[in-house]
């Protein structure tokens, strides 16, 4: 592919993360979308509620990520209508992985590159989190993951030090905030805001919506 075409593809530089807590799951993302060195959007929703039991977040090409979300929502609804039963979180994640796998292997001038996190709760109240690599592999997450976003090194470094197995949802929310703040301070592809969802047996809640606003201060003069 021509280098200029590569530079012009709209990409989500991105920090996404999922944290497994003792009483549920916390999922979060920043809001910045970039095209090369240009910030295209400061208010993109990279972590979204797919339906009443599932949340997903994406890193990669923005158009591909949006398409994956729409396809996943529609296919899950069709599956539910046909089988007259609600898909499990694992089935939902495998469906997302299958769509990703198929898209990657279709010949195209512009490659489909999307990494995903899929979290939700089952009908029995259990919660699960899965990570789907850009090539389509799917793996259950037992602690935390940031997939392949540009902010991943900053997030994983902090989580490696601060994560513990028996985190409460409240503690998980605060940890997610700190991880995203660390990423947006150092990763040029992440910034402008954060969104955080919680997933428990009681349901899905969006618990944090914050905007990062730049401010200018005069330098102190001696």
Strand % is 25-35%
CA radius of gyration:
18 Å
Classified in CATH, the superfamily is Aminohydrolase, N-terminal nucleophile (Ntn) domain
Tally of individual helices: 5
Based on CA inertia axes, which overall geometry fits? globular
Give the distance, in angstroms, between the N- and C-terminal Cα atoms: 54 Å
Look up the CATH topology. Answer: Glutamine Phosphoribosylpyrophosphate, subunit 1, domain 1
The succession of helices and strands, N to C, reads HEEEEEEEHHEEEEHHEE
Structural class: alpha+beta
CATH architecture: 4-Layer Sandwich
CATH C-level label: Alpha Beta
Overall structural domain count: 1
Number of strands: 13
Average pLDDT score:
89
Stretches with pLDDT under 50, minimum 5 residues: 4-10
Most strands sheet? 6 strands, antiparallel
Helix content: 25-40%
Structure notes:
The chain is α+β, with helices and mostly antiparallel strands and 222 residues long. The chain has five helices and 13 strands. The longest helix has 22 residues, at 62-83. Helices cover 33% and strands 32% of the residues. Strand 4 (33-35) and strand 5 form a beta hairpin. Helix 2 (62-83) packs across helix 3 (89-104). The chain has a single domain (3-205), classed as Aminohydrolase, N-terminal nucleophile (Ntn) domain (Glutamine Phosphoribosylpyrophosphate, subunit 1, domain 1, 4-Layer Sandwich). Strands 1, 6, 7, 8, 9 and 10 form a six-stranded antiparallel β-sheet that branches.
């Amino acid at each position: 592919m021509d280098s200029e075409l590569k530079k012009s593809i709209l990409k989500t530089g991105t920090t996404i993360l999922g944290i497994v807590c003792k009483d549920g799951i916390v999922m979060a993302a920043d809001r910045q979308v970039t095209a090369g060195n240009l910030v295209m959007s400061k208010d993109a929703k990279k972590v979204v509620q797919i339906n009443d039991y599932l949340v997903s977040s994406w890193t990669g090409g923005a158009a591909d990520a949006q398409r994956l979300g729409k396809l996943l929502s529609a296919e899950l609804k069709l599956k539910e209508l046909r089988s007259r039963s609600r898909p499990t979180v694992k089935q939902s994640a495998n469906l997302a992985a299958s769509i990703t796998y198929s898209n990657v292997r279709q010949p195209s001038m512009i490659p489909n590159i999307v990494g995903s996190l899929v979290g939700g709760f089952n009908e029995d109240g259990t919660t699960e989190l899965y990570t789907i690599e850009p090539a389509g592999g799917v793996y259950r997450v037992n602690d935390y993951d940031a997939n392949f976003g540009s902010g991943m090194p900053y997030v994983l470094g902090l989580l490696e030090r601060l994560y513990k197995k028996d985190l409460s949802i409240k503690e998980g929310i605060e940890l997610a905030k700190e991880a995203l703040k660390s990423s947006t301070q150092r990763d040029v592809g992440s910034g402008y805001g954060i969104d955080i969802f919680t997933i428990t047996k009681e349901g899905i809640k969006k618990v944090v919506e914050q905007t990062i606003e730049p401010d200018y201060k005069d330098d102190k003069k001696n």
